[in-house]
Amino acid sequence: MKRKIDKYDFEAFGQAIKAARKAKGLSRNEVASKINIAPRYIASIENSGQHPSLQIFYEHVTLLDVSVDQRFLASSLSLESVQNSLSSIVSLKGIFTFNTFVWNMIR
């Protein structure tokens, strides 16, 4: 039996790169030329949520300075889950507890 795989909805990513492209004053043609793809492919990513290849995804976020963690993690991680993850990592390493870690970061 095939397991169900949830696919990421790339529409929000498309909107983010479109906004970043416009904020940088770049046209689709200019971006397409810089990353060597067709402007229509960029339009499909921006407007239709087409899934870009990993290489195209990387080139977009690098060129346009789009935050990957905000695109993928902001909706799925709360501050508490980030704290719990950091606390687990720090405790497993045997360095110090999360509270000590935070205290040392803000001193």
Automatic annotation (TrEMBL):
* Gene3D superfamilies reported for this sequence: lambda repressor-like DNA-binding domains
A UniProt-annotated Pfam family: HTH_3
PROSITE patterns hit by this protein: HTH_CROC1
Limits of the HTH cro/C1-type domain? 17-71
Annotated protein name in UniProt? Helix-turn-helix
Organism of origin is Alkaliphilus peptidifermentans DSM 18978
Which molecular function terms from Gene Ontology are attached?
DNA binding
